[in-house]
Amino acid sequence: MKNKFKELRYISLILIVCLILCIPLLSSDLDVYYDDGIQHIARAYSTNLSIKNHEHTTVLSNLANGFGYSWDLFYGPLSSIMIILGKLITTTFISGYKLVLFIGLLLSGITMYAFVYKLTNNKLTSTIASIFYIIMPYHLTDMYIRNAVGEFLSYIFIPLVFLGLYNLFHKEKRDWLLCLGAVGLLLTHNLMTFLTAIMAFIYLCTNFSKLKDTKILKKLFFNVVCILCISAFFWMPMVETALSGEYQVYQENAMSTADSFAESALDLEALFFTQKDATHVFEMGIPIIIILCLSIFTIKKVTGLHYKKEYILFLCLGILCLIMTTKYFPWNLCGNYFKMIQFPWRMLVFANFFLAIICALNIQILIKNFNIKDVIFFSFVCVLCTVPLINFLPTDQELVDMDQWSIGILTENTSDVIAGMGKSEYLPVKFNKHRSYILNKNGVSVLSGKGDINEQKKDGQSLTCNVEIFEDHTILEFPYTYYPGYHIFLNGMEVDGFQSSNGLLAISVNKMELSTVMVQYTGTFVMHLSRIISVISVLGFMFYIFVCHFRNKFIL
C-alpha cells in the first residue's frame, strides 16, 4: 500500500505539470482551428454527421461539395473518434478537442513514465523523464500551434512500442504492449508509424542476438501477427483503395516536393532559440540543452549500469534525429522516398523521446541522493521556461463551433487548402484535374451516348433516379467521388461501377426502356472481411492478455 501511495504521488506530479501546461486551453480565444486544427475538427464533425445520418463513415458525404471525401481510407481514425467522444462529454467540438489535447498530454506522460520505470526501476527518474517528455517545446507546438493532433497523439504510443520491445527482449511480462503501441500508432498517424518502425528496428538490431531464443522470436512473431490482424480494418481497405485507382496522396510531389522539403529543414540556431516572428517553435529548451551537454560526463559512468546499451543507443539516436531536422543532414542522398515525411523537423518527435530519457538518466547519475525535491525543482524550471512560448499561441476572438462553418467547399485551384479536406490529397487524380467540370456538375448526367434522366433524388450516400437509354454503351455519371464501396442497381440487378474520366462514379448501360437506378454506399467485401478479422483478433488479444495476467506465464 505504501508503494502504491508513492507511485500515486509521482503520477500526481505529472498530472499537476499537465494541468499547468493546459492552462491556455481555458482561454476562449485560443485558435484551435489554426494550421491543421480545422482539418481534424472538421473531419470529426463530418464523421459525427455521417453517424447521425446512419451513413458509413468511410466516405464523408457532406464534403467535396456533397460528392463525398474519404479520410478513413487513408488516415487513421483514432483522433477523429477521440474528438467525437470529447464532444459528447463537453457538448461542443471546440471543448471536446481541448479535452482530447489534455488527455493526450497526460497519457503521453504516463506511458513515458511506464517505459523509463521499466528501464531504470527508479520512480524519480521515470517522473522527471515523463515531465521532460511532455514539456518539450515541439510537443507543445504540436498541441497548441500546429494543432497536429495525429502527430501529437503519437507521443502516447511511441513509449509503449519501446516498452513492449524491452519486455520482449528481457522476457518480462506485458510484451503485448508492443502490439498495443503499434496498433495505436497505425490508427493515429501513418508517417509516425513508419518512422517509429525504423527506430524500433534499430533497437531490435542492437538486441539481435536475443532472437536466437526461440521463445522471444515466437513472441515477436505473435505480436507482429496481432498488429496486422487487429489493425486489418484500416490497412486492408487502404491497400484495396490504392490498387483500385490513382489517388493524389500516392502521386509524386503530392505530400511535398524536393524544394519544399529542403526549405523546411531548420537552421541550427532554431534548435536553441525561437525568433520573435517565427510561426512555430522548434527549440529544445534551455534546461534540456544544458542537461544534455552533461552527457559528456555521464557517458563515462554508465559502464556498470544495466541500461548501458539503451543509454548509448538513445543518446546516438536522439542526436541523430536532431541533426536530421537541420539543413546539415544530407537528405539529398536519401532519395525521394523520404520526402513522404514532408518536413525534416518531424524528427523532433523522436529527438524529444530519446533525449528526454537521456536527460533524466543524466540527472539520476550526476546528482547524489537524487530525491523528490530535485524532481520538483527541475519541473519548476522547465515550466518556467515554457512561459515565453505563450506569445506564439494563435488566437481568434471570433471563434465559433463547427456547425457554423462551411466546410468541404471545392475551389478550382488544386493548391488551395480547403476546410475539412486539407489540400484534397485523398481525391482521385482525375477528379482533381477536372475540378472546373465538377463545380458545374449537378446530379446524374449522360457522359457519353444518349439517354434521359429524371426524378433524381439524392440523400447523402443514397441516390435514385429513372433513366431511359437510347444507345448501347451509354455512360451514366453519378455525383459521387469514386471510392471503392459504392453499389449500383439497375431495376434491382447490381451492375459494376467504375471511375469516369472525371474521377466520379459511373456505369455503362445498353439501350433500354424506362428503368430505375439506385446507388448506395455499403462498402466492399474486403472492408467487411477486414472488420471481422479485426473484431475476432481484438477478442483473441484480450483473452491472451487475461490469461497472461492471471496465469503469469507465456502462452507460446
Description:
51% of the residues lie in helices and 10% in strands. Strand 5 and strand 6 (493-495) form a beta hairpin. The protein has helices at 2-21, 37-52, 78-90, 93-120, 123-135, 137-145, 149-169, 177-186, 190-206, 214-230, 232-244, 258-263, 286-293, 295-298, 308-324, 348-366, 372-386, 429-433, 435-439, 525-551, and strands at residues 445-448, 451-459, 462-469, 474-481, 486-490, 493-495, 498-499, 504-509, 512-521. It has a 5-stranded antiparallel beta sheet, with no helix packed on it. It has a 4-stranded antiparallel beta sheet with strand order 1-4-8-7, with no helix packed on it. The mean pLDDT is 92. It folds into 3 domains: 78-228 and 255-396, no CATH class; 436-523, Immunoglobulin-like (Sandwich), CATH 2.60.40.1180; 524-556. It has 556 residues and is an alpha+beta fold. The protein has 20 helices and 9 strands.
